[in-house]
Amino acid sequence: MAGSKDQRGLDLDAVVVGGGHNALVTAAYLGKAGLRVLVLERRERIGGAADTSELSPGARVPTLAHTVGRLRRSVVEDLALKGHGLSLIGPDVRAFVPSPGGSAVTLWSDPTHTAEGLRPRSTADADGFLRFDGLVRSIGRFLAELGRMVPPDIDAPGLDDALAGLRLGRSFRGLGTAGTRTITRILPMAVADLVAEAFADDAVRAAVAWRGVRYCAMGPWSAGSAAVLLMDSAGNDGGAAGETVFARGGPGALSEALAGAVRAAGGEIRTGVEVVSISSHDGRATGVVLSSGEEIAARAVVSGLEPRRTLVDLVDPVALGPSLGWRAGNYRTPGVVAKVNLVLDGTPIFPAAGDDAGRLLRGRIVVAPGIDAMERAFDASKYGRMSDEPVLEATIPSLADPTLVEGAAAGTQVMSVIAQYAPYHLREGDWDGSREALGDRVVARLEEVAPGIGRMIRARQVLTPLDLERDYGLTGGHPLHGEPGLDQFFLWRPLLGHARYRVALEGLFLCGSGAHPGGGITGGPGQNAAREIVGDLRRRSARRAR
User: Fold this and answer.
1) What per-residue string of b and e applies to 64-84 under the rule 16 or more CB within 10 Å gives b?
2) What element of type H or E holds 285?
3) Measured between alpha carbons, how far is 348 from 450 in angstroms, rounded to an integer?
4) Contacts of 176 by beta carbon, 8 Å cutoff, 6+ apart
5) What is the Cα Rg of the chain in Å?
């Protein structure tokens, strides 16, 4: 296909803005399709949220995301990522949820194992877990099908939309009469209500419900949080326990494997270059302009950035128009997540883990004592305050992957902690002045379930929501490029009428987590977007040939 030449004389079919994992997925698929692709990343490193960084000599930590369990298997296989160095580690334990009193709920990869562990607490909850796990997997399969399809064109639906609708309808009917009634009933529900139908024990409810609010400006009593839990189980082997998979070498190893796939397909990646605008002519995107003044022309511009940043900051307001500009400006990105990375002098002691700590601490460690405790933590963020008792999800990835601590760091462990709820907009003070106070609160929370952990800290890094925006381009500090509520889901992600990866201008596409099917380390938006971009460019070439 003939492309457009940039100032360096390169014949480009597509220029991809941003070097996050979804952008790299798209670039690799475009390269495999025979297109000439250039990826531009503002930071000196690729990967965005999927990165690994050195916190102290020899100790490397997952910078933001700490697991890659939702990565689509088809992406791994299509792009031969294992051949590019990707190695995945899946511990048997999915989540260990300790309580300050010394008890714990453990969710295993085997639902039967989880149920037997719950039986001493409650026979009803043990039996209920197996039923609930079956429900989640059944609905998850349907939602996975939904996630793989391109939302229909609501203005001019075509044959492809009709065929996709038939496939989705067949999948929906496959749920059975009871299943179809169940899914339409529970998607708008609060996850607290959903788990209350299955479990009596508050600790069990919280352990399962956490994924319904993780990374979101929602509490367990927020409407639509049940859908977030179910979408988190779509397309993987998570079930009610959720998925926990590490990339050997940290999440940055995934990004490096994706970069290898891009280069193997003939694509180019440039880092340390900032795109300041998307150029256009007569309603069509024609390329990008860099902060250096360099102009790069291409037949398609593909943005892996958050939708509001793409449209409001990069597209000419005149070309965007006032209506779409207003709608894009109201796209919701209310970040409430902070990240704390630690280097520890050894493995912390969790009394609730007992003698099985070496196994139990290899998955996700969730500090969420109960549903109401989670809701109270959320309440603080609603009013612009850091929660005094944040909900935490931690991992000690070096237990499963010793390559993260080598040389001078031998004998230490690294801990990666997601801290929620820490609102982007603080009512009092600012994040630059509150950073260490947040770190102290997270450590104090860990002390409740792992006494003495504070004395083991050799190095600490605190990333506030402001840091996530400033350093990683996550508008509002939202890790998912926007709330995954039902008002920003499927046809409405990111905006109604712009859910098919094409947005604002002809030849401008979204491929990041702000596009369907949403956030997390999945590669789904990037894979879906690539399919549409290739189709559009081939049709355009065919028209020119005629």
Assistant:
1) bbbbbbbbbeebbebbebeeb
2) strand 284-290
3) 6
4) none
5) 23
Nearest to 207 by CA among 361, 328, 320, 94: 94
What's this model's pTM, rounded to 2 decimal places?
0.95
Q: Tokens for 101, please give them.
A: 């009193």
> b/e string for 374-395 if b means 16 or more Cβ within 10 A?
bbbbbebbeeeebbebbbbbbb
The C-alpha atoms of residue 234 and residue 138 are separated, in whole angstroms, by 9
- Give mean pLDDT, residues 478-497: 95
Q: Residues near 187 by Cβ (< 8 Å), separated by ≥ 6?
A: 224, 226, 227, 230, 486
- Residue 428 phi, psi (nearest 5): -125, 130
Q: Which amino acid is at 21?
A: H
Q: How far apart are CA 484 and CA 215, in angstroms?
A: 9
37-41: strand order across its sheet: 268-271, 37-41, 14-17, 300-303, 508-510
Give how far Cα 260 sits from Cα of 29, 154, 274, 385, Å.
Answer: 12, 37, 22, 43
- Whether the per-residue pLDDT at 424 is higher than 90: the answer is yes
Cβ-in-10-Å burial (0-12, 13-18, 19+) of 491 comes to middle
CA 452 to CA 446: how far, in whole Å? 9
E strands, 206-266, in order = 246-247
| Nearest by Cα to 242 from 95, 74, 87, 455 | 95
pLDDT digits (tens, 9 = 90+) for 94-116: 999 999 888 999 999 999 999 99
pLDDT exceeds cutoff 60 at 6: no
Residue 409, pLDDT above cutoff 70: yes
Query: Is the pLDDT at 162 greater than 50, yes or no?
Result: yes
